[in-house]
Structure formats: C-alpha cells, structure tokens
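Dear U.,

For the methods section draft, I wanted the exact inputs and outputs in one place so we can describe them consistently. I've listed the two proteins in the order they'll appear in the manuscript figures. Please don't edit the token lines directly; just add comments below if something needs changing.

First protein:
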Amino acid sequence: MEDAEKGSQERLDSAPEVGEDAVTSVGPSPPPPPAITEEERQELQEELDKVEDEIQTLSQVLAAKEKQLADIKRKLGVTALNELKQNITKTWQEVTTSIAYRRTSETLSQASLKATAAFSNMGSAISRKLEDVRNAPTFKSFEDKVETLKTKMTPSTSDPVDEEREDPPAAESEGSPLHEEPMD
C-alpha cells in the first residue's frame, strides 16, 4: 500500500512546471549521472532554480511591457485596423520596390505593347479581307439578288387616297353589316 502511495506521490512531483520541456515531463526523471558529485548536483539545481526564476521574471516584465504598449497605443488612437493598414502599405511598398516586381512589371508592360500591336494588325487585316470579300464579283452578285428578292417581297407603298376609292371585294360586300340593303 505504501508503494502505491509513493508511486502516486512521485507522479505528482514530476508534473511539468511552467517552461519545463515536454521531453523532461514524459516520464520519471532519470537518476543523475554517476559522474556528478552531490556538490555539483546541488550547484546545478541552484542554477536551474535561478534560470527558472529569471524566466518567470522576464515573462512578467514582458506582460507588463505589452500592457504599457497597449495603453500608449490606445492614448494615441492607434487601433488594430490602423496598424493593419500601415502594415499592408509598408508591405506593398516593399513589394513594389523589389527587383523581382520591377522586372515582372517591365516584362508585362512589353508583352502588353506587343499584344496591342498584334491585335491592331489583326483587326486591320480582317477589315481589309472583309472589304475584299464585299468588293468581290460573287458577293456583288449575291448582294444584288438579295436586294431584288427584298424588293419583290416588300409591298409597294401606294397613295392612301387610292385605297379609299377601291371597292371592297365582292365576298365582303355581300352580307356585310356595313353594306346592308333595306328590307321590304
């Protein structure tokens, strides 16, 4: 029973402290190497305690400085959004002044000029070809035939006065309510 209590006591003692490595907290600590005397072990333990205290002190100082920084920023009106804007502006400035950005920008600019010239030349060539097709005898003949067909299909516009004088067709005049004959 005492062995079980002693084992649980050892596990409680070996719980990792703040800042302790995960490697050292995996299992029970190994016994000290046999080459270290009790006096050296005592000195190392004191040094360990001193370093842990320094770490804790530095953590507290850092927390206090971070709080002081936040207070100063608040008093100056510096918000997280303003900081983000400044960081983005600074980063963009660094990117645009980089050699890689300038080379890429120059290359894209040259490619754009060449593409613009190529499209312009292509547009001119297409326009010339379409004009050549339009002036070709085959297209002229086709155009004339379409115009003739259009003329035949479109009703001719006549004088509206003539339309009023025309007699209605015979089928419509008989039995039509407009042209009823009196009944005897």
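Second protein (the one for the lower panel):
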Amino acid sequence: MINAHTTITETMNETEEEPKDFIKLTQAKLSVDEVSVLVTSPCCGAISLFIGTTRDNFNGKKVVHLEYEAYTPMAEAEIKKICRDVRKKWPAIKHVAVHHRLGLVPVTEVSVIIAVSSPHRIESLNAVSYCIDTLKATVPIWKKEMYEEEYSWKENKECFWTNMEK
C-alpha cells in the first residue's frame, strides 16, 4: 500500500516479479496467446516467439500429420537446463516459456512454442533462437512423419546423439 511515507524504491520492489520458466509437454493444442501472456512483464519491452507448425510436405512427400513422443521426465529436465543456460548467457531475460505438443499434430497446427521476454529485443531474439536450436539438439522428443502411405521417424540433424556413431 502506498502512503505518504512510501518511497519509489519500495513501490518498485513490491511490483518486481521473479523470473519464471514455464515448461509444458502436453497432448492438447497449444495456444500462442496463453504462452504470450505467461511471459508478459511490465519491465519488459520485448517478447520474442518461435512457433513451429506441421507443414504438409517433406522431400516431395505429402505429410498427413506428425506424431511426437517424449520421455517426459528427461525432456522436462533438459528444457530446464536450457532455461538455466539462457539466463547465464542473457542475464536480462525475464521469463521463458517452452510448450511442446505430444501425440498427433495435424498439418498447420502448432507443435512447439517458445517465448522469451526481456527489456530489449536483441536478448529475447537471441534467446529464442538458442532455445529452439538447443531443444532440437538435446531434448528427447521424437517425431514421426506420417505420409499418405508410409511413415518415417525423423532425427534432428542438430541432435548430438545421432552424430556419435558417424
């Protein structure tokens, strides 16, 4: 409560929020609006988003839908590591959200949303790029592309464990 004896610093400290990470692996449809609201902060002038969707083609084949599977406890732990790394690399980052859909994801629907808020755009843009690249390289989430008459489990070319035997 503000009264005649309250200083500006005291008022600012009351409204200052702790940085938060929002991690979600779900079978449900993802909401860009929901994720944007999670990372919104009055002290931030930038929210950067990456939205990954299912496209209808790959190497000349018609994609019908994707299916994602994950080892959830390990995937969540790896995403937490990514969030910690983001904060080390860009200390100004306020909030980080990583939501990934599991199960069947039809063409045009969202598979992954990454959102980062920061006081200025450069930190949040760099952090979002780092998040998606690192997620694809380290998090145990597997993608199966379903074509009209066949399917294929896809490995991410960034994934470190796929390159260990080559």
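Candidate sentences for the figure legend, describing the second protein: The first helix runs from residue 8 to 15. The mean pLDDT is 88.

Thanks,
Y.
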